[in-house]
Write the structure tokens for this entry.
Amino acid sequence: MDRLHPLCASLSFALLDAARRVRPLRVLGPVSVRAFTSTEQQVEARAWERQLPLGSGATVIVQVFTSENEQRVSIATNREGRLLLHWGVEGGKGYKGGWRLPDERCRPEGTVMYKNRALQTPFRQQNGSGVQAVEVRLTGDEASDYLNFVVKDTSTGEWYDLNGTNFQVALRGDSEDPMAVPVAQPVAGANGKNGNGKANGATLDLPPLLPLDRVPQLPQDLCGIWAYIKWEVAGCPNRSKEEADREYEQGIQEMVMLLRRGRPLDELWRVARGEVKYADYIQEYGRLLAPDVEQRQRAAPPPKQQKKQQRQEREQEREQQSVYVPDELVGVQAYILWEQAGKPDGADFGGEARQLLEGRLRGGESLDDIERSLRGPQPEPAQQQRQQKSAPVAEPAAKQPAVVGQSMGMKSRNPLDMINRSSAPLLSEKKRAVRSPLTPLLEATHDDPNTTWHRLYKLGNKMELLVAVSQADRKNPDSPVTVNITTTLPDAAVLHWGVKRPGRGGEWLAPPDNIKPENTTMPGGNSAETPFSACTDEDCMLDWNKVDYEPEDFGGSTHPLQRIRLEIPSGHQLAALTFVIRSEDGTMWWRDGGGNFTVPVPGPRAQGGDRSQGFDDELSRIIVDCEVNTGAWTLMHRFNKASELLGDVMGGRWQDVDGALARIYVWLRYSAIRQLTWQRNYNTQPRILGSAQERLTNVIADVYSRTNGWAQEWARLMLTTVGRGGNAQAVRDEILNIMHRNKIKEVKGTWMEEWHQKLHNNTTPDDVPICEAYLAFLRSNGDNGAYWRVLTEAGVTRQMLEGYDRAIVTEPEFFPDKRDNLIREFENYLKILKAVHSGADLQASASAAAQHVPAGAKGYLGYVLSHSNGPEILPLMEAAVEARTELQPVLRNSRDVLYLDLALENVVRAAAERGAGGAGAGAATFVAPLLQNLALSLGDNEEVCYCLKAWQELPDSVRSGKRPNKDDALQAMAVIERIRRALAGVSDHVSNTLGPISQAYGESFGCDTWAVQLFPEEVVRGGPAFAVSLVLSAVEPHMRAAAELGAWQVISPANCYGRLEIVPDLHGIQEKVYSEPTILLAKRVTGEEEVPDGVVGLVSGDTPDVLSHLSVRSRNMRVLFASCHDPAQLDNVAKLAGKSLAFETTAAGSVKWREVDDSEMAQHTDAAASTKRTKLKVNIPRWCGKWVVGMDGFADDVVGAKSKNLAGLRGRLPDWISLPSSVTVPFSSFEEALKRGQHNKQLAKQLNEAIREVQPSNASAALARCRDLVMQVQVPDELQAELQEEMRAAGIPVPESQQDWDDALHALKSVWASKYNDRAYVSTRKVGINFDDVRMAVLCQRVVPAQYAFVIHTTNPTNGDEGEVYCELVRGLGEAIVSGTVPGTSLTFTARKDDIDNPKVLLYPSKSDGMFVPDSLIFRSDSNGEDLQGYAGAGLYDSVTTATTETRRVDYSSDPLLTDPDFRQRLMADICRTGLAIEKALGSAQDVEGVVDPDGKVTVVQTRPQM
């Protein structure tokens, strides 16, 4: 169905086109009417029917029957629920406007009065047909003109209306209504009529106006495109939001008038599609836009009495006809009435003003005519004319409260098609660089290992400059330095130079004598001058065949290079050289982007010296040097330098493109937030600044077009820090023009002249809020408080104004006689300022990008331009996001389109911030457009696109913000968790990338502490990810409540006492030993960590799998482990850091905590100490004498529990459960291999030495050395031969090629080496096991092709319930569950053992990734340390496949697990039955891992006793 905006829809009652496309409701038969006499037919008894949509998927049919004495209305619907008809009528006896309530005799049974404003009648079921209906009968003098109604579902509180307006039914039918069915209608063409009931007569100048309910609906797309075309035809002017709103409404009225004059809707679409030019169309049909005057002629005039009655009815109908009056005009009219009444206190003229304006509209005046008359001089009473000097100027319309609004609908598209597939910067897209005479020298410099710094500068007119710095000994920072300055400039160039010392800022110092070349002079001051001379060094001899120029291009010289060489001895104490170049006669000067060339000189870093030399990377040194060491520095200099550095980045000067662009963005943002100087010792004319801005923004747009991923994101963000630039001269000229036009003198010491001088001298982005503040001052009739309020909100202080080079120190002056004209003048001037300084301003961006906007975006953009201030949040979001989507194909082509895209992104973010707080559950409707908005902004958007698809696949009850059932809400919570994780990924990347840069730069620049500390956070909060997070915070509580999920998830239940400590994660403290019982609040956990010694409780906002290593270890150690989903509760816990607390879990699955005193803490500490765990001892088995054993040889002290249990299950499971064929390399085979062959014996000695070196302080590096030695072991030939024989006997595919065997033996050694991994070392050490006492058996199996993998605990590990099976299921391999490397929840379910076929879902899958491997072999660890009683060693050691395991994105939203409930239920039941069967076969609770192949067959790959 076409998308409608409520305003469009409200202009057309019938919605006839839409009704025909709604699912029909066939519940009412033909209208039964009795026969009438010819006399009765004069009264025009008639009946008609209308069919309308009533919410999603339902319909309402209205049937009207009228006769002489009765109007009967039947309203029927197929919508379910307990429905009420909320209704009233217009017209009838004593009608005085608004809704009239008919008396008791006309009210259906059960009707009650609602607040004396409406009637409410319950719908009644019709014969069990699923249809509900209400019939209203209006008899005698209760007959009315219209029946108005809406419908309410009392069971849900939902209201159904006509896109924000009431349904309105005309009760006095018109035979011209195409949906009306007259009782006795003449044959078409008879009695002198034309078949439409109209009389044939003379041609009129204007066709008659059709009634509104004859006008087809206006689709939202058409409304927006029409407004956009009108704006284009007007020259794309900058407009205020109020102006845009008004013009949008006028465009709708224009189309409605054309339709009422008989022009077809398809014709308007032809104009919108550009098939007919708007100007040509209006030229031809503009006459139809004449005022709304009735011009009908009838062939046979009725009797006088009937004619008079019809005229009165038409007048009454016109009076009651709904007309639209903008609130702004009502406010202006009310203000005028208030003035004319003598400005009485507390008087409200709003109602009178609206009635007056409605009357003028019904009288034929247009909104434009009325607005012009209101904004012109107003007639005033004589006594007021002496007081009032000017007519009022309308203030900006007051903001209406935000509401969700009616969805306009979004185009159907697959979010996965929006993924940006490439992530590498496209640095090779530019043409091959031209090889100049300096290119060979540049290449040699680049390859020279002694080069510490080099730079090629373009000097214009094919001339270049190469500076290369080298050091005699790169390892000795104080070794001598050589600086070669080589150029292709013509003869007689002179180097004008000096030096800088550490800590001396930008001070230019005279060079010491020992580094001056021959012929150096000191012309005065601290400057030296050295002439260039022809370079005769061997490296300057050119081979012209290797360059793209000829000698004639350089004056005919075959050796055009000139050089100056500076030799700087050790102990020089210099920071840099600084210079410019001039021609010998001084008529030409060459500079570095308007400033000095600066060359860093390597040497020992002096403490407290030059801040720019404290950075390891060259780019940072350049940026900081410019900011802190340059005497004259303005926005212009900064922008030019940034343009140059961006060119160097894209030219390949720095390999880390992402990092380089991030650095430049941080620099520019510090400038944008006024943390860097905008003017220091230099004045920049607006024209020059505008040129620098334009250059920089075009360079940024070029960088955007050539990059992807995060590099592109940094480029995009750079545009938010710089205005568009361009015609900045207008800033300088127009302020003077305004002063002259309004006869404001240029008098020193006045506010206007001070601002004029500031603008003339050095315009900056501050001028935008200054102009806005002055407008507020004018509108408030000279209130200085309004002026300062606007400045303060924009961050402009009095000190800043007084600190400008051309200071603003006075207060603005008020000119009462010029007020209105100045408001208009400065509203226009504000547009000029925004066009220069505010790149992402919506109106300015739309104007600049108009010629590049695709046709598909115009309708949406037209809507956004006209409704960005409107109260309806959802349609505004949708229109802005759809406009952005349509702009995507041209984003790389135009800087102005990029700015427009940024402006639209800001509209969406601002709308979310306005609407999220008050939307309640309805905020769920915002999630889809906000996710699409985020996907359009991110360079690396893959995961966000998957999140968007998952959200779109959720049930309508979730997406529409209604009341979802428990299962729907559980699905929603899984998607919300995935979205949260994606948002965290964006936030973490921004913080981790920008945080260190902003910290270092901020400290070097001397920025405010708050600006440095909050820098990354403010970047995130100002971006589209924060808007999604904001809305999810509004949605999530409703979904959690519906899903019956508490704020806590208890993973390991326990009560504990300890001191609370907050840690960022567990990885860095696994080895820490706490001296007192400690409860950790960890910001991050993955599930693969170890619980530190002394920790009795662990609380986190992250939720690893219940079956992950950390979860199992916590339960095994009886440590509380709970995850909290409520940030507020986590904050409350965090406030108690350092205090002694008691935590306990409740039977309801929640967590309680309280502060305890020292005595209670000591009591429980003593109790805990008395029950301290004893150390474990592991049995070290001997080698059995065989390298490989089959399943018949799986025995104690030969293989581990995994192997033994598989053998024990043979013949004891149902046929539908498969076991994989297996062979095992027994215990101590690795140790035996070390004894075979000289190579291995030598490795054994080295390994023993490496093992002795392992200490907690160096464990990570020492263990890595052990693993490296294991991987060098040569597998005995006997082992390979036995492995081949046993695999073949077991039916396991044997490796065929040497490469296959290499892969298999590499996997075997990798399992052996995992004995020395970090986590295993930490875990064994904690329970007193020597990590080298572990002996590794290795189970070899064929990899079963896995559609799904599962883990079963046959006793519920979360509560210890032996009567309940607990299971987790994922796509791909089970490593995604147990390893902790794939965050998110699995499909989690339980089943009672006495009701095993009815499992219940606890959580739906939220994992973003799955682990997959092709058909291959897998070697599984089966050690003697994995199944010790009281020690959870499972998952500590590796299982390795011969093929590479891939981690890929998974889309659960399209998986049968979610799309097919019957399939899900069958599969869950099969897995639960599998666990129960294994437990019965082995006689104890089991920890089972298995897979389900694509055909649904269940295979158990390993099982071990549950710890």
